[in-house]
Amino acid sequence: MNRTEATLAVSEYERPVRSRYLDPVELIWYATARRLGLRIRRNPAIFSSTDGTGLLELAPRDALDADDCTAQMIFHELCHWITNGVECFEERDWGFALDAELDWREHACLRLQAALAGAHGLRGILAPTSQFRKYYDELPTDPFGPVEGWPCEQLVVPHARDALLRARAAPWGEPLAAVLAAHAAIRDATIPFFDAYASDVADDALPSLWRA
Predict the structure, then answer these.
(1) Is the distance from CB of 150 to CB of 110 less than 8 angstroms?
(2) How many Å apart are CA 208 and CA 83, to the nearest integer?
(3) What is the pLDDT confidence band of residue 95, given thresholds at 50, 70 and 90?
(4) How many CB atoms lie within 10 A of CB 108?
(5) pLDDT tier at 68 (50, 70, 90 boundaries)?
(6) Helix (H, G, I), strand (E, B), or coil: what is residue 146?
């Protein structure tokens, strides 16, 4: 083959796409959601919502804040499910009335979230990014410890403790333990690279979420 023929062959070549790149953190959380009977779909009209049939809709990635991530969103929804009880799988939005005042079970969910994530050193990385972050950030080292100034704490704390027991049992126990351990392993693998990392976002003043 001469040079002209080679150039023509290259110009006519269409590279086959034989695989799809998947972010490893998204992969493990998508897989965990599926193991637990949830189907994930992106919907630009909402932030997150369940329909009671196993469909969990999440906002598109480009609609999220800089510190939002799919892993945190799926994890938070699983904590809602655990906190509100296995039967709420068949209720829209885990039985929450989204236009109602604060449901104290939201705070129980946040305590559960802190307990599960904290056991793997992920409490900051998997923190909520909604307006409920204020309560989450006020939780002490012991996620079931007292927090002053919030209503219904006499209901929240025991309910969160019960939710933690449920989280360790079927159907959630093994899948959650596996995905949190995998997430922590990925976090550990990034640590040696922190010092050389530089954001490709112009004038980015935000540190990496992996340092949280």
Answers:
(1) no
(2) 30
(3) very high
(4) 27
(5) very high
(6) coil
